[in-house]
Design a protein that fits this description.
The protein has 217 residues and is α+β, with helices and mostly antiparallel strands. The protein is built from 7 helices and 5 strands. A 5-stranded antiparallel β-sheet has the order 2-1-5-4-3, sandwiched between helices. α4 runs parallel beside α6 and α6 packs across α7. It is elongated.
C-alpha cells in the first residue's frame, strides 16, 4: 500500500512511487518466505509521524500509520547512521524476545527515505532449542560402560591392519591369497567366534560377506 505523499528529497513523485512499490514487493516476499515467525515492516522515513506503510506477519501489534521508531528517527537525523544493523536483540510489547534486522534505504541525495525491518519471534525457536537440548543430553556420570560396537570388533580391525602393514599394503588391497592367510590367522586367534565377525571383516576389507565365507574355507 503506497501513500499519497507528493515529494521526497531528490525524487519526483513518480520516482518515489516506483521506489515504494518495489519496496512493498520486497517486504511482501520476505514476509511470505519467513511466515509466521518473522514480522516485516516497511517504514517511510520522509513522514516520521506516519512512518509505517506496511506490516506483514504482524507480531508486534503495531498498525499502518504509526510513527517511526527510535532507529528510524536516528536515521532521519543522521544520513551517516549505519545502513544495515543486523541481528540485534529486541522485544515485542508483551515481552517476547525478538531478533531484529533493520535496513535503511537512501535516496539519490544520500538522505534516508525508507527502512525495511525484520523482527523474528524467538519464542518458538527457544522452545525448540530447549527440547532438542534435553533430547540429546546423556547422563555420562551414571551410565553403564557399554558400546554398540560388537565386543572384539576393534581387536579384529587392529589384527587386519597389522596383517596388511606387514605386507606393506592396506586391508582393501589384500590379494585373495592374502585374505585366506589372514582369515586363518583370525580363526586361530579366536576372532571368528566374535558375534558378527564376518560382517566386521567384510566391511574392513571392503568385500562382501560371501567373499569372506569363501576365503575362510
Amino acid at each position: 500500500m503506497s501513500r499519497g505523499k507528493s515529494s521526497v528529497p531528490g525524487k519526483t513523485a513518480a520516482e518515489r512511487k516506483l521506489l515504494f512499490d518495489q519496496l512493498q514487493q520486497i517486504a511482501q516476499g520476505l514476509g511470505e518466505t519467513f511466515a509466521p515467525f518473522c514480522e516485516v515492516v516497511l517504514h517511510d522515513l520522509t513522514d516520521p509521524r506516519n512512518a509505517i506503510i506496511a506490516i506483514h506477519n504482524n507480531l508486534s501489534g503495531r498498525k499502518v500509520g504509526q510513527g517511526a521508531t527510535e532507529l528510524g528517527l536516528a536515521r532521519i537525523a543522521d544520513p551517516d547512521y549505519p545502513q544495515v544493523i543486523a541481528n540485534y536483540a529486541n522485544s515485542f510489547a508483551d515481552g517476547r524476545q525478538a531478533k531484529s534486522t533493520s535496513i535503511g534505504i537512501k535516496g539519490a541525495d544520500g538522505a534516508y527515505v525508507a527502512a525495511l525491518c525484520l523482527n523474528v519471534d524467538l519464542t518458538l525457536f527457544q522452545g525448540l532449542q530447549s527440547a532438542i537440548g534435553q533430547f540429546v543430553s546423556v547422563d555420562a556420570q551414571n551410565s553403564p560402560r557399554e558400546s554398540l560396537n560388537p565386543v572384539g570388533a576393534d581387536a579384529i580391525r587392529a589384527h587386519i591392519d597389522r596383517f596388511a602393514a606387514r605386507r606393506a599394503t592396506t586391508p582393501r588391497a589384500l590379494t585373495t591369497e592374502d585374505r585366506r592367510t589372514l582369515l586363518r590367522e583370525l580363526r586361530d586367534a579366536g576372532c571368528m567366534q566374535v558375534r558378527r565377525s564376518s560382517d566386521i571383516i567384510a566391511a574392513h576389507l571392503g568385500v562382501s560377506r560371501a567373499t569372506v565365507y569363501a576365503d575362510a574355507r
